[in-house]
Amino acid sequence: MSTFEFQLHFQLPDGEADPELWLDALFEAGCDDALVGLASHGYLSLDFNREVPTAWEALQTAVRDVKTAIPEARLVSAGPDLLNLSELAELMTDRLAKVTRQAMRKYAKGEVKRTATRFPSPRVSGGTPLWHADEVLAWMMENRKIQATPEPAQSLITLASAIRMLNSTKEYHQSRAAAPELMQKAEQLLVS
């Protein structure tokens, strides 16, 4: 068994936007391994620390447990996935080995000479670029930029990859439902 730490963010059903109403139901449904955040009206965030055999099982059972307690809840996103450089440094420092924000900035700008491969490109550009956590974690391990034991590092990479797939699949299905013809055109553009 492994312990997986991750976050799930849900939108609550319309008309029942007070998340405090759901606390007992969440506990009874199996979310006793999560801290529940009630910060935004109409939304619920859960910070899980789930012990299961695989990362995917951690996500699958957590989503199932929340949907059991709140059937109309809609998954908004899971994390860690898209993070800025400071958040990436914090994630690695908290879970693997100390990494500074300054080091992350140097890696991202290509200012470090001894690397086997180029730093991953951001998935969201702009004022605050965002990277997929799994890509950066894998790059850090491949380029020996963190001195962490392989098992915890690989476990975190696997979890971040599963979270990325969950978020990507959710976005894909929402986009496809909202504009099926446009999605078909976009798919053709990417294939050709």
From TrEMBL:
Report the domain of life of the source organism.
Answer: Bacteria
- Molecular function terms from GO: DNA binding
Q: Which UniProt keywords apply?
A: DNA-binding
> What is the protein name given in its UniProt record?
DNA-binding protein
Organism from which the protein derives: Alloalcanivorax gelatiniphagus
